[in-house]
Design goal:
Elements: H1 2-18, H2 28-57, H3 67-86
Helix pairs in contact: 1-2, 1-3, 2-3
């Protein structure tokens, strides 16, 4: 359970960085940070989801534990999709 709490806290920190708005389409470093943060949020959330699912399957935790990492995974995917769709990369230098 401690591992899941720590993973959820890391995911919460990543979610707070992912939800910040870029200054505009020219803000490449901000957009890149949001994209990398979204990918990290998806990765940490997926690992936490697998750990929670295994613990629920062994009846060590309640059924609601996998819901928290699942929300973080969905948030990461949604934010990454939004950034990629609304801020396309320019072609060439």
């Amino acid at each position: 359970m401690t591992v899941l709490v720590l993973a959820n806290l890391v995911s919460l920190y990543l979610a707070s960085s992912v939800l910040r708005a870029p200054q505009g389409p020219w803000d490449e470093s901000g957009l890149t940070g949001i994209e990398v943060g979204s990918m990290c949020l998806i990765l940490v959330g997926a690992v936490a989801l697998l750990v929670a699912a295994a613990a629920v399957r062994r009846r060590l935790l309640g059924l609601w534990w996998p819901a928290i990492p699942a929300v973080f995974v969905v948030l990461g995917v949604a934010r990454l999709t939004y950034i990629v769709q609304n801020y396309p990369q320019p072609n060439g230098p």
